[in-house]
Structure formats: C-alpha cells, structure tokens
Amino acid sequence: MGAFGRGTGRVCAVVAATSAKEMSGQLRVSLRSTPTVELRLDWLKDDTQRMLFLRLLKKFAPARTTLLATCRRREGGGKFAGDIDGELFWLMQAREAGCEWCDLEMETYRKLPEGIIREFPLPRRILLSIHDFDRTPKLPKTINVARHGLVDAVKVAAKAKTIADSVRLLKVARRSRSFVAVPMGDVGLPARILALREGSELAYAPVEEATAPGQVSLDEMLHLYRAHQLTRRTRVYGVIGDPIGHSLSPLLHNTGFATGHIDAVYLPFLVHELRDFLRAIPDFGIRGFSVTLPHKQAIMKHLKDCELLAADIGAVNTVVVRRDGSLYGCNTDYIGVLKALQKKLSIEGSRVLIFGAGGAARAAAFALARAGAFVGISARREKAAKELARAVGGEAIPRRALRTQSFDAILNATPIGMHPHEDISPLKAGELQCHVVMDLIYRPERTKLLKIAAQKRIATVSGVEMFLAQGIAQWELWTGKRAPQAAMRRSVLSALRWRP
What we know:
The protein is of the alpha/beta class.
C-alpha cells in the first residue's frame, strides 16, 4: 500500500461527528497523534454540513497527511441516506478538498458497471471495503487486490463471534498485501490491536465516538497498547473473563511494560468458552494470562502443572504458558488479600468473615487461614459455603446470623456492586458488625458497601489495594523483573478517580 507509511501512520484516526465544526475539531486533535485520518462524511447530519466541512478542509489543507474520505450509505452499514450518485458526488468533492484515498463499500462497487469506477474523478486511491456486522464469513486464504479490479486495497471488517473468527481474519492479513483486517466486536478487540503486526495496512481508532463495535480509542491504541510498535517478537499477555470491559489490568500491566521498556503487550480477552481461547494461544503467541470471573476454577482442568497453594485453593488467577505450550497455574490473589488487609488489621488470631464462595473467596479464605485467622464463610450457595469452610478449617455462617455475630473484618468476595452496578451493596448496614470492611471489587474504588461501612465509622479497605498487589505479583512472575510499582499504581488510581 505504501501511502500510510510506518509508525503512527498505520493507525488511522476515525473522525466522525454530526457538524462541520465538530469534525474539524476532531481532525485537528487526531493530527497531533497520527498523519492518517478517515473522514466519515456520512456522519454529518446533512449536505449543508458536508459542504461546509469540505470547504473548511480545503482551507485547512494539512501537509504530509493521508486523508481517507468515507460516505458510507445505510445499505453498507453507514449513515448516509442518499443513493449511489450522492455518495460518489461527495467522494469527488472530497478529492477536491485534498483527500488522497476514499473508502468505497462493496454494496456500491457491485452496482456500478464493470470498469467504470476510474472514470469518476474520485480520490486517486480507492479502498474497497467489505463489512459483515453479523459474523465472520468464509474467507479465502489470500486476498489478491489485482483480482478485485480497479482498486488499490481491500478491507474486510467482520464481526468476530468467537476468538477463532478473529484468528481467521488475521491469518488472511498475514498472507495478503494491500489488505486491511478489522475484527469487529468485543471478542475481536485483541485481534484488532494485533492486526498491524499481522500485516494489516491499517488499524482504525476513533478520536471520540466509536463508529464500529469493539473499537478502542485513538489514545488507547497508540499509548496504552502501542499497536504501531508491536511485532512478531512482542510478547503477548492478557486477561480472560466474561465480562472483561471493566478490567483495569491492561492499564496496570501495559504501564509496567512501557515504563520498564519491555517489548510486551497485555490485552483483554472476552472469553465465553475457555476452549475457544485456549486453541488461539499459539496463534496470538500468548506467553501468560490473568484469569478472572467466571474461569478461575474451570481453568484448573486445562493445566499441566499447578503450584501447591493454588491447587489447595482450587482456583487460579495467573497462568504461565511454557515453551512447549503447556500451562502452569498460580494464584496471586492470596498475596493481594494479605497485603491489603495487613494495613488495617493484625491477621493472626483475628476473626474474619468472607462473603462469597467463588474463586476469589477461596483465595482469601486460604490466605487468611494460613496466616492464623479464624475464617467464617457466608454465601448464597450454602453448600459451597460449607465446603469452603471445611477446606480451611473454618465455619459456614448463615446470613441471618450476620446481624448478631461480630468479626474483626468482613470481606466481600462477590461481584455485587461492581461497575456498572455501583448502587448495589451485597450486605446491609445492620450486617456489618465488625471493625474493618474490605471489598475485593476495585471498580469503583469506593463501592456502595464501603460507603455504608464508612457511614458507620468502620475502617475500610478498597479492593484496589488487592488488585495492585496481585497484579504486580503477576507482572514480576511473567517478566522475572522487579515491577515499576509507583508508575503502575499511579496509572490505576488516576483512572479510577477520573470522571468524564
């Protein structure tokens, strides 16, 4: 393709707004980060705004930039209500305003007489785009642009329902030239970030509002994931879970990699089925991954080896992928619980209640029991509570008893109250008969439960302390280096305390 150059130029900023003024503002912002910009003319609310924007663009005339005009009709998944003649008209106007490229969707291309496309005074280079917002279709092994006629490059943007779908699209990018691969949807997000290293000519990222499912912002693409710097030598790590969009683990780990000058990237994998992810490990070149809900216990049966403590806990939050492809499991959650709670409580001899009986609860229970605490377990699933209590030599405590029994500390190990359900508390004020309340949830930093505890003048411990401790332990396990803890902590706390 050539025109997009190297470095940040391969990350295409997407400028999309309803007014010419907003579009112009986004364009100026995007050009501070990348010289390559897609102008979504179809997002402008009417022809008046389109004409006004193109006039502003012509006056602005930014040098050493690559502008790609798109006026996608509704039939092709865009917002332009006009017909093919209208689309072509605006693309021709875009050329006059300085656009070197245009995006022409397959729906339009197919309806034009064969060979006629170059008779229109469109931008000099044409990107033929194929979109499937429902699935990833069957794809050829290689896409030869010459076979598609009078176009300069081909883009395939397809919804990835499974991780395997996104892998198929990346394999086409690896074998093709003048090809743009865009895995869409939250499941396809990791592949979208890795597309450039697999041979895709571009990776798209919106300046403000997302224009397709599964997009990450321009700032995240360039600075959090550093997509333009990734190569086949880059070590890939990630976090698997369902849901996963709330996770700050990518921020934590990628800050560590950037600060420590380590050629590695950490990606969020939305995993509905474990086997779908596990089969993709070799294709992505994954060296290790974090495990969160609901996979902490299910991953155990896929491990070749496991540290003894993790085996006793029966849950894993950290996996190392060995050179032979086998999986080794560990648990750093227990480190996080102890480090966080020790700041407010002398654990040995204390009486601690854990609310919940899942993977995080198991790690907390074993950690506290081994540190010399009496551990009580209360959970919605009474059978699970009894089993966990028996495993750590503790006691299952029915919820109705929480109003009458007292504890040194109460830990919430359920996801109740996690973003975006921030107005819910797993326990009521009358059930907090204790000196310290700790919530293993870290987003938000101050959960509804912690607010209730603070109103009762009970000391609180945010889950962010556990999150940082367990994540830093993971980072050091994978890299064999000392983590830049101060930078990692600052990045997470800044993200948690920032409000739009």
